Amino acid sequence: MLIAGVDEAGRGCVIGPLVVAGILIRQENTPLLEQLEVKDSKLLTAKKREELFPEILRLAEKYAVIKLSPHQIDQAVENQRKLHKLNRLEAATMAKIVDQLKPEVVYVDAADVYAERFANHIQDAAVFKTQIIAEHKADRTYPVVSAASIVAKVERDREIALLREKYGDFGTGYLTDLKTPAFLAYWLKNHDDYPDCVRKSWKPAKALKSQKGKTQTTL
């Protein structure tokens, strides 16, 4: 049986893409993933993820990666409930991964608080109909999803490295990294708007931009 795992990286960041990845593997090869000791990518160092990346692809029958730019995300959530629209965008993207891999069963890390609803959204958007099992923390339960999470994270890390070369060190792109909000503030001091790598619809980014506007008006 051919099974797939699908996961994402970069959902909550303010800088950089949202990366969705899926891998297709023969079910009998799942123990080989376990031997690699794959796990949720957040529990691994960047070095370990890079080491596992080629080993995962070697075991996979096929893999697929889709990168959603900040502009695509901003368009999807503009003037809408951000969380709801982002969930639907992610489900639609995962459906494209399913269409490319065509697994007999696919395991997905659910982004929606209601995992079954998230699975239904993927099923509705997918052309290829298959069994979809969406669960919270699936990347810690199913090795095939853990492997997908590693692929997604490595692909995003590489994109972030390229963006840092272009724009300077903004950290990880997550607001929990102090370098990231500092970069946003610094950029706005010297430019009228954010660069294309920033999700302009994100509330903290909008708040900083609004504050800049008020300051300019006061002056």
Record keyword descriptors for this entry.
Nucleotidyltransferase, domain 5; alpha/beta; 5-stranded mixed β-sheet; Arc Repressor Mutant, subunit A; 53% helix; 219 residues; 2 domains
Structure description:
- The chain has 219 residues and is α/β, with parallel strands linked by helices.
- It has two domains: 2-164, Nucleotidyltransferase, domain 5 (2-Layer Sandwich), CATH 3.30.420.10; 169-218, Arc Repressor Mutant, subunit A, CATH 1.10.10.
- It has helices spanning 30-35, 46-59, 70-77, 82-101, 115-125, 138-141, 143-167, 179-190, 203-218, and strands at residues 2-9, 18-26, 62-68, 105-109, 131-135.
- It has a five-stranded mixed sheet with strand order 3-2-1-4-5.
- α4 (82-101) crosses α5 and α8 runs parallel beside α9 (203-218).
- The longest helix has 25 residues, at 143-167.
- It is globular, with a radius of gyration of 18 Å.
- The N and C termini lie far apart (67 Å).
- 41% of the residues are buried.
- The mean pLDDT is 92.
Instruction: Predict the CATH topology of the largest domain.
Output: Nucleotidyltransferase, domain 5
What's the pLDDT, averaged over the residues? 92
Encode the helix/strand succession as letters: EEHHEHHEHEHHHH
Number of strands: 5
List the helices and strands and how they pair.
Elements (H helix, E strand, L loop, with lengths): L1 E8 L8 E9 L3 H6 L10 H14 L2 E7 L1 H8 L4 H20 L3 E5 L5 H11 L5 E5 L2 H4 L1 H25 L11 H12 L12 H16 L1
Parallel strand pairs: 1-4, 4-5
Antiparallel strand pairs: 1-2, 2-3
